[in-house]
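We were asked to recover a plausible sequence for a given structure. The inputs and outputs are reproduced exactly as logged, with field labels preserved.

PROBLEM: sequence recovery
POSITIONS: 377
GIVEN STRUCTURE:
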């Protein structure tokens, strides 16, 4: 852990589609092979394939400032969009498919992905959901678990802020995050349980593996967890961000939540356990209503207007945001969401003229223009 605010990094998952029909397009392998010809990536940025060949992931390096993170995410989106266009594909920043699935049967999965297909069957057969995962540095594994205990109340609000998945293969679901509905079909999903230390966390994961609910100890569906690969807490709650600015907002809020949790722990304030059923209700209301209705406050076990919970979140992390110099930027980005709507709201507006129009709009909105400012339709 360096001096100053904890480090952060972001993993963004994207869909690949036919730009004319909107069908999901399994072109991940040729796009991966081609991306190096479409401009250099900043040091530390990596491109990976995902569960389906209709998906790709761009992972930033380790960042300390919003500007550094924005630069890396912007470069990755531009490179991937260029490589996709060269393969007659479009790159879309959406949590679920706007248009129909691939034309024809999907290619068979291999390796670990084939094992996931075998274990989960039809639950995962059409799973093309894309998320935005944020990593925030922490000192050690036991601290990571203690920090995760402090996050549960705020995870549904982060989901509502990120909502960018209103469609499912051509139909409007009526939800703001259908991705979260799809994810809830997997065992052990949702707000993580309250655990005492990393040893208990490992036992909980290993028990789910022994029960056949997880493929291996590297897999879990909780919305926040200690990373198995890095000295970080990993937030897995957000839909893929429509814009780089939306991704940066998630990263800054996530880092501030970790920093607030570290301060609380240093003062001896442990998190109170949440009711698992109320926490599940909080996640569901965030997926259903986004920022446009009432959400469940899992700590108070009552409903509140979504923007009341956003204001409570900002008050909770105000001090760490001030200390890191991020408060003004976060307030500006939240204000833009209040004015322009989340990704789900903007997608629905673009889809008034049909799926093809929505795909064209998303193709433009995904790729940053000058200085990281993004097209918004």
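RECOVERED SEQUENCE:
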């Amino acid at each position: 852990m360096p001096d100053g605010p904890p480090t952060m990094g972001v993993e963004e998952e994207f869909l690949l589609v036919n730009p004319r029909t909107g069908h999901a397009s399994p072109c991940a392998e040729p796009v991966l092979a081609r991306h190096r010809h479409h401009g250099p990536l900043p040091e530390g940025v990596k491109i990976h394939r995902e569960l389906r060949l209709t998906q790709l992931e761009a992972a930033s390096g380790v960042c300390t400032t919003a500007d550094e993170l924005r630069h890396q995410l912007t470069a990755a989106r531009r490179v991937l969009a260029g490589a996709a266009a060269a393969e007659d594909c479009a790159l879309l920043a959406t949590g679920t498919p706007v248009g129909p699935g691939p034309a024809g049967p999907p290619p068979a999965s291999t390796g670990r992905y084939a094992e996931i297909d075998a274990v989960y069957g039809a639950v995962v057969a059409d799973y093309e959901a894309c998320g935005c995962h944020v990593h925030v540095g922490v000192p050690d594994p036991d601290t990571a678990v203690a920090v995760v205990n402090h996050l549960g109340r705020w995870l549904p609000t982060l989901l509502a802020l990120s909502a960018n998945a209103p469609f499912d293969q051509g139909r409007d679901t009526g939800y703001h995050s259908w991705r979260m509905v799809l994810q809830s079909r997997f065992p052990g999903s949702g707000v993580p349980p309250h655990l005492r230390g990393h040893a208990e966390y490992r036992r909980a994961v290993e028990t789910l593996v022994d029960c056949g609910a997880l493929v291996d100890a590297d897999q879990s569906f909780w919305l926040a967890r200690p990373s198995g690969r890095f000295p970080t807490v990993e937030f897995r709650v957000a839909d893929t961000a429509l814009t780089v600015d939306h991704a940066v907002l998630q990263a800054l809020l996530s880092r501030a939540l970790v920093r607030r949790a570290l301060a609380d722990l240093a003062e001896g304030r442990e998190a109170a356990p949440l009711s698992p059923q109320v926490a599940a209700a909080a996640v569901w209301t965030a997926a259903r209503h986004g920022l446009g209705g009432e959400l469940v406050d899992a700590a108070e076990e009552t409903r509140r207007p979504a923007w009341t919970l956003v204001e409570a979140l900002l008050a909770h992390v105000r001090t760490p945001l001030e200390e890191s110099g991020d408060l003004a930027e976060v307030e500006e980005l939240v204000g833009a969401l209040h004015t322009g709507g989340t990704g789900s709201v903007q997608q629905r507006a673009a889809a008034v003229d049909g799926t093809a129009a929505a795909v064209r709009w998303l193709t433009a909105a995904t790729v940053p223009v000058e200085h990281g400012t993004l097209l918004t339709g």
